[in-house]
Design goal:
Blueprint lengths: L6 H11 L12 E5 L4 H15 L5 E6 L2 H8 L8 E5 L16 E4 L6 H6 L1 H21 L4 E4 L1 E2 L29 H20 L3 E6 L1 E3 L10 H10 L4 E3 L6 E6 H14 L5 E4 L5 E3 H12 L3 E3 L4 H6 L5 E2 L4 H4 L9 H14 L1
Parallel strand pairs: 1-2, 1-4, 2-3, 4-5, 5-7, 6-7, 7-11, 8-10, 9-13, 10-14
Antiparallel strand pairs: 10-12
Length: about 350
């Protein structure tokens, strides 16, 4: 679908671009973004391009594996003089002497859904560690003023039963000796690697911790439960729930996730992690399935997952994040879970 012809989507982009943030920090700068065609990265680029229309003059280097996917996603914007797509395998050293100084770097590339965790466990780990190190080394070599590592709610592991909401200092249980541990453990290691570069090389690094994000920029290949539910909903099919649905998680609409990411990038402290989360978007999986079914006029049916699917599922049954620290920087989400789901389905149906 062409999101640039959808007024609701363009409203989300403009609203985010109109936020009261210190945008002048990015004026006349170069910004490099890995994972540029992903759910969060692509929306972020649309926001920055909107700011460029308003005179920000921010050159965007977008990294991704497929030039064709980038051309399809960004359309005419991919030909803009302030936009350059660079095909790149994140696990290989990134050496580009022609780029000069790059002021801001955001490492958003990662395997982010269950099927990838179970079928590409090596790539899941290496992208979050080796890929991150490649980006950190590039940042040091090109005089970056700030680096952002997109971490995850999964670093908290399983709730030990002693906390309702996870603040940034919480550390739950993860059984590291499992296939599924590759994603959360590599995100944890990635955060530690960022601290090492702060200490040893003087790099300015901030760490936004994203919750389970969703929205109209979601990839149709995404196998997260919420993505599967939404795809079923827009197709006019019943919603398939492959568990009892008692998992209780935090979710974030993509526009709010990116506004949080930008708040951390432009206002957060070096070395600090910030949860991008709001309690109004916390919901049990069965209630999420019911909400999407209700919005789509369908019903929820139950199905047993196959072995490959089950291997990629999170073992955490309760992971709700405390967003107080980010709110203290001035961040406030626009959508609760119902509003975000309804808007996502409406935009995708219009496409």
């Amino acid at each position: 679908m062409d999101l640039y012809k959808n007024q609701l989507y363009l409203e989300d982009v403009k609203r985010t671009a109109d936020l009261s943030l210190p945008w002048d920090s990015l004026k006349d700068q170069a910004v490099l973004i890995s994972g540029a065609t992903g759910l969060v990265g692509s929306f972020l680029i649309d926001v920055l391009m909107q700011k460029n229309e308003e005179g920000l003059n921010c050159r965007i280097y977008a990294l991704g594996r497929s030039a064709d996917k980038a051309a399809h996603r960004f359309g005419e914007r991919s030909q803009h003089p302030l936009f350059a797509f660079i095909p790149y395998d994140i696990n290989k050293p990134f050496v580009r002497d022609d780029l000069g100084k790059v002021g801001y770097i955001l490492h958003l590339a990662s395997n982010t859904h269950p099927l990838q965790y179970s079928t590409d466990p090596i790539g899941t780990i290496t992208t979050n560690i080796i890929g991150l190190q490649n980006m950190l080394e590039f940042a040091c070599a090109h005089g970056a003023e700030r680096f952002a590592f997109a971490s995850s709610n999964e670093i908290y592991g399983e709730n030990r039963g002693d906390r309702e909401l996870f603040d940034e200092g919480y550390c739950g249980y993860i059984d590291c000796n499992t296939l599924r541990a590759g994603y959360p453990e590599s995100k944890r290691c990635g955060e530690a690697l960022c601290q090492a570069y702060i200490s040893q090389k003087g790099l300015d690094v901030c760490i936004p911790r994203l919750t389970r994000s969703y929205g109209p920029t979601m990839l149709m290949s995404d196998t997260k439960a919420i993505s599967q539910f939404i795809r079923k909903g827009i197709a006019g099919e019943d919603i398939v729930l492959k568990s009892a649905g008692t998992q209780y998680y935090s979710y974030t609409y993509v526009a709010d996730a990116v506004s949080g990411l930008l708040t951390v990038l432009l206002k957060g402290k070096c070395g600090e992690a910030y949860n991008i989360a709001d309690e109004k978007s916390d919901i049990m999986l069965k209630d999420l399935a019911g909400l999407i079914a209700q919005t789509a006029g369908k019903k929820v049916i139950f199905e047993i997952p196959d072995a490959v699917e089950a291997a990629g599922y999170s073992k955490a049954t309760k992971a709700r994040l405390d967003g107080k620290k980010l709110r203290e920087l001035g961040w406030a989400p626009v959508y609760d879970i119902r509003g975000g789901i309804e808007r996502t389905i409406k935009i995708l149906k219009q496409g």
